[in-house]
Amino acid sequence: MDVSWPPRLGLGDQVRFEDRVWVVAGFAHGLVQLTDPLGDITCPAAAELALSTDFEVLERGSRVPPIRVLPATEEILDQARWWERHITEVISGVPTGSAPDAMPRAAYDPAVRSLSEREAAKAAELMAAGVVCASARTVRRRRQRYQAHGIDGLVDGRAVRQRTPGARQDPRVLETLLMLVSDDVRRGRTGSAEGYRQSVGRMLEALYGSGTVPLPSRSTFQRLVKAVQTQHGGALGITAVDENGFKLSRPGERVHIDTFELALPGHLARRSLRSVRVTVAVDELTRMICTLMVHPSHDGVDGPTLLARLCGPPAPLAERDDADEHGAVPLIMPESLVFDSLRIHRGREFLDACRAMGIRTERRRPTTKMAEERIASRLVSLFSAELTTLMGDPSHDDVSFIGWLQNRAEQWVRSVWQHQPQWGLQALGGHQHKTPSSAYEACVAKLGWTHLPLDRDAVRRLLPSVTRRVTERGVCVKGRRYFRVELASLRATGPVEVRFDPYDLRQVWVRTSGADAWLQVPATMDGLRHLSPRRRDRMSTGTTHRHLPHVPAQEPSALDSVRERLCYHAQLPVLRTPFLQQVLRLGDRIAVLNRTPTGGRQGLLITGPPRSGKTTALQELGRHFSNMAVDGLPAGPSVYLRLHPADSSRTALLRLGKLVGLPPCPRRASTSAVSEAVCEALIASEASLVLVDDAFPDASIPWKPGSVETLHFLADQVPALFVYAGPDREEDPFALSRGAGQARLTHVRPSPLPYGTDWERLVEDLDKDLRLQQHEPGSLVRLAPVLHDRTGGWAAALAHLVRSAAIDAILSGREEITERDFVSMTV
User: Fold this and answer.
1) Most buried among 15, 258, 721, 760, using CB within 10 Å?
2) Buried residues in 412-442 as b, exposed as e (16+ CB within 10 A)
């Protein structure tokens, strides 16, 4: 078990690739040079090597493990590695360097021992071995430092404490001196301290003006030149200067994370999205983009997913639609993450994962905040300018639009940003590394190693997890459908665990069997829904989510428990009355007419007494429209709005706008401006049906016709069918509205059924749907005259009466319906 961070592939490593054993011989231009004992040479790309299924590091080359504290002596490093073996045994149960099949000792088994018990056991073991100052508290502190800082936290800071050369000097003096010394070392020549002092003075005067940057004294400058020549003049890698003086840096030593708002051009802006933000992770040394995520402004960044994208293998370009000749962005594993005010979801899991990997997290210092924010904001500004050149928007909804922006941003980073000259890269190590790609290649060539991604299973555990049921069309996650033939074997197993990357919806991973058995499932081309999940969630009274679905008839063996029978009989299938069939036919016809109207758009008005089936007709119309797409008919989402008696024109519009995903309007916005915004939101949502229930309040409440009149005016601007339902009134409520609105409403009113064949057919349908244990088939049909007399021929009252009688029969234990059940029951 190797917990050193970050994992690396270096010169001399023995690896397995394409069923052969190779030795790493070098790195150049993003390629890894591999040789074998027979003299064959292959040069795969680093990303290709990392994504290969048979790639494995068999043996490390002869080099010191990656320890970040360079000034420590070998004795101090050995002491830190000794503590690392004991601390990793406390954390995971198995010390570092153990065999892959090693089992934890009984006192350190995480499955049966708590963390405090393992710390106490290690303290007792060390005290028995003669180690002084090894109490449980000491073990706990070392374990916490190791999880926060890696093996650096185990090194005795008193032994390695020393002043960084030039820590008290102006960074501009250090940067200029470093450039001159590195250039002389590269050319094989040396210079005197006084010569360097004069050259540095002339360059600073030319760059910043006379007397702006003071030079240190001659003795101080002489000591500074000696320290630079000794520690940094011929160092491998790229040397940079920060606020603390010189430092030997490497890719991933500090990765800065920033979030900025993305300015969308006019032809890509959407009213349903308040704004779009971009979160970028930038390597401080090379200016490479480690990862990039596009998300709405109201959504924060998922912390574990951010870590998975930073540490996981890059997505293969062969599976991308926008693959180009520039190749993938190189993988840079972070040693330290620096962020300022980042809104992180699952923050505790993010910090725990960072500590387990040895990644440090810190707040940005004020001295570096401006420079790093300037780099990230420049990236966002350049990408915003790139979006202005794009024509059209191929997405259907907000989820697809965000995914489209994510793909375009990743492609732009590969093809433009990593080859774009960046400020601050020219003077690194005294060499002209103007672009992030050239700076990274120089680092890899000189350091002699490149980063390796984490194991796929470890990365997958960081991704969000949901539970989904596998159907014949696959699984659905975040509004997209994913399908693979191998999923057919999981349809009978019940809900399965699905993990996904919310910023890359091209594929998901479905758990098949076992702890780490996963199946990668790609997204289907037609799996995109026209309505975003967030907008569906906002439909608090949506016709497809808040109403009970149609429950098909089941065998009695499937309803053994009392709870199952109660739930079943509480939602018996809706009766297909002539009135309901008339509403469905009119809805289909008027909806088609409203798509391309030759005059004013038509509407549907349903009135009737209470318990006559008005709300049921609205619900069934919404379900009918949601199922039209199955038959190949174009149909958008349905919106269900129930008016409150105190709703004004403005409140009715605001509630309707909220249902279709419209952001909150400013308080000072006029009612006409709100109406225009709601109109555009309805058109953008492609809603085909707007159901307005309780459109006309009770006559005892003073009624203001403004809300209904405003909705009817809105209906004339939107290519959707508006259906109003309300109780009967002595006066036509639309007569109070100005204009000829009444003439464009088709009025439908339910009526009671006379006793006859139609009534007996309805009672027979209910009789067949009953699943009472003592129910005799046909017994309810014999009570058809009694039911007609009791309900007055109203189908909705009939359904309510039979449901109530069935529930009462189950609760009383009789499990059958008789005539006496209808005598005292209220309709």
Assistant:
1) 721
2) bbbeebbebebebbebbbbbebebbbbbbbb
Q: Which residues lie across from 239 on neighbouring strands?
A: 248
Q: At 483, list the tokens.
A: 């399908």
N- to C-terminal Cα distance for the chain? 72
> Of residues 448 and 499, which shows the higher confidence score?
499
Higher pLDDT, 169 or 319: 169
Q: Cβ(193)–Cβ(222) under 8 Å?
A: yes
- Comparing 156-165, 264-273, 633-642, the range with the smallest average pLDDT is 156-165
Q: Token digits for 22?
A: 């190779």
Q: C-alpha angle with apex 192: 191 to 193, nearest 5 degrees? A: 125
**Can you list the positions of beta strands (E) in 365-487?**
449-451, 465-468, 475-477, 480-482
Longest dimension (CA), the chain: 117
361 in Cβ contact with 337 (< 8 Å):
yes
Strands 336-339 and 255-262: parallel
Q: CA triplet 56, 460, 511: central angle to 5 degrees?
A: 105
- Average pLDDT of span 501-508: 83
SS (H, E, C) 16-51: EECCEEEEEEEEECCEEEEECCCCCEECCEHHHHHH
Residue pair 637/687 in contact (Cβ under 8 Å)? The answer is yes
Q: What is the mean pLDDT of residues 622-640?
A: 65
Q: What's phi and psi for 366, nearest 5 deg?
A: -60, -30
Bridge pairing between strands 449-451 and 8-10: antiparallel
Bridge partners (DSSP) listed for residue 293: 279
What is the layout of strands, in order, in the sheet containing 518-522? Answer: 465-468, 496-501, 504-511, 518-522
681 phi-psi bin (left φ>0, alpha ψ -120 to 50, beta other): alpha
Question: CA torsion sign, 442 to 443 to 447 to 452?
Answer: negative
- List the beta bridge partners of residue 56: 16
Cα dihedral value 778, 782, 787, 792, nearest 10 = 120
Q: Is 330 exposed, middle or buried (0-12, 13-18, 19+ CB in 10 A)?
A: buried
Tokens found for residue 647:
């709703």
Degrees, nearest 5: CA angle 372-373-374:
90
Q: How many helices (H) and strands (E) does the chain have?
A: 24, 27
Per-residue confidence (pLDDT) for residue 656, from 0 to 100: 85
Tens-place pLDDT, residues 368-408: 666 667 777 788 888 888 887 776 555 667 777 888 888 88
Burial 275-296 (b: 16+ CB within 10 A, else e): ebbbbbbbbbbbbbbbbbbbbb
